[in-house]
Amino acid sequence: MTGGLIIVGVVALLLLLRQPLLVILLAVVAVVHMVWGRGQLDYIVEDMWISLDKELILSIPMFILCGGVMTKGSTAKRLIDVATALTGHLPGGLAVASILSCGIFAAISGSSIVTMLAIGSVMLPAMQRAGYSMRYSLGAVMAGGTLGIIIPPSIPLILYGLVTETSITDLFIAGVGPGILLLGAFAVHAMWTNRKLPTPRFDLGVLGTALRRGIWAILMPVILLGGIYSGYFSAIEAAAVALIYALVIESFVHGGFKAKDFYEVVLDASKLGGTLFPLLAAALSLNLVLTEHRVPIMMVAFMQSWIDSPLIFMLLVNGLLLLVGALMTTGEAILILGPILAPLAAAYGYDKVIFGIIMIVNLEIGFLTPPVGLNLLVAMTAFKQKFGELVLAALPFILIMLACLALIAWQPWISMALVNP
User: Fold this and answer.
1) Which of 218, 222, 251 is nearest to 82 (CA)?
2) Residue range 86-102: average pLDDT?
3) CA distance linking residue 168 with residue 252, whole number of Å
4) Sign (positive/negative) of CA torsion 101, 106, 107, 109?
5) Are 254 and 73 in contact (CB under 8 A)?
6) How many CB atoms lie within 10 A of CB 76?
7) 260 vs 181: CA distance, rounded Å
8) DSSP code for 151
9) Dihedral Cα 286, 288, 290, 293, nearest 10 deg
10) DSSP letter, residue 24
């Protein structure tokens, strides 16, 4: 009890002093080590080293590098050309092409923001020229970008797998169904909302040219997901294959990717890693101590003494995650809440893989939810729009995602059909 009060006091004080999450997390880890651990702060460093001494963690910087290489190169433009040639003749075809491009690029980059910027920088002006409203165009690009954290390979899925000791391969496969569901829901909304806009005729020659130019980019997710699903690749092997494939295609097939570009990509990835890995080390160290002292088991017993219904539990957890997604970044939320909530969900009959997908979709909605929705903040800067206008643009897509979230939680086979065929 005393230890818990100390933690609450320390967190409250540091929040009052406006300290970053890493400082708060390290302070909590220190208190836990002193109160429930072995009583020596130097063990924190040892636990952090043990926590990060996992080969799987290498997949994170490699996927980040892969996304950076594809963004610097011409992959995004080629994917957009293919998607536009395929769907441009449909009602709202250009919007559908934007969403489809986001889905395919998400399966390459594994990042929401990278996906939004890579596709949005090209498709937003194109939709404006075609007569789409600015509000709808912004919403489609921002919502399409969120697909980057559910469609594999996904860095948040890797983080969840690390902190909850869940199979990354199973999580990747489980993300395919929900990703397709969200992509399809966005596409149907695009066709209905923009059904009165004029559309060009389907041109087989244009499609053939686009496919010929974009075939190597399209093959990337096919190779990755095929290798993972067949068991030929592990997650870390898939990351290595993706990075090598991206470098070869952009440097020698598409051309134009230079050593200077790779230096910039490595620099950007290093900055992101410098932010992420200390958080990951602190969170995993805390997880080690809590597990050693059976804290998750005690929390399960406490929750079950108050809540009997799995449905009530899931409604409460979804409400919590939606709130957390609006206030914290996805990585922070996963690192802090994943190790706590996953054992609770398992006690109520929810498989860790299914719960991981539910958690990620909740946090995916957070990318569009003020005040800390990352896609809103990045779009405000990148597309030079007012924050209030971006919130209104995102609102219809938030409602669509909430409906899809309810369906995913209600029908687990959407996630698990490919995991347990």
Assistant:
1) 218
2) 86
3) 31
4) positive
5) yes
6) 27
7) 39
8) S
9) -150
10) H
Q: Do the beta carbons of residue 384 and residue 138 sit within 8 Å?
A: no
Cα–Cα distance list, 140 to 14, 75, 134 (Å): 38, 20, 10
pLDDT at site 129: 85
Contacts of 379 (CB under 8 A, 6+ apart): 116, 120, 138, 141, 142, 385, 390
Across 6-20, 41-55, 263-277, least confident range = 41-55
pLDDT for 398 equals 93
Whether the CB-CB separation of 336 and 25 falls below 8 Å is answered with yes
Phi-psi region of 240 (alpha: psi -120 to 50; beta: other; left: phi over 0): alpha
List alpha helices for 203-308, DSSP H: 204-230, 235-248, 259-292, 295-306
For residue 420, is it left (φ>0), alpha (ψ between -120 and 50) or beta?
beta
Roughly what angle, to the nearest 10 degrees, separates helices 387-410 and 168-193?
120
Distance from C-alpha of 139 to C-alpha of 391, rounded to nearest angstrom: 9
- Contacts within 8 Å (CB) and 24+ apart, 130-135: 130/94, 130/197, 131/197, 131/198, 132/94, 132/95, 132/194, 132/197, 134/385, 134/389, 135/389, 135/392, 135/393
Best CA proximity match to 174, nearest among 7, 417, 390: 417
Q: Which long-range contacts (CB under 8 A, 24 or more apart) does 273-279 make?
A: 273/60, 273/61, 273/64, 276/60, 276/331, 277/52, 277/57, 278/22, 279/21, 279/22, 279/25, 279/331, 279/332, 279/335
Secondary structure class of 373 (helix, strand, coil):
coil
Query: What global pTM score does this model have?
Result: 0.81
* Phi, psi dihedral angles at 131 (to 5 degrees): 100, 5
Which pLDDT tens digit goes with each residue over 360-377?
Answer: 999 888 888 887 677 887
- Give the tokens for residue 324: 């957390």
CB atoms within 10 A of CB 31: 20
Give the C-alpha separation, 340 to 414, whole Å: 25
d(CA 280, CA 299): 22
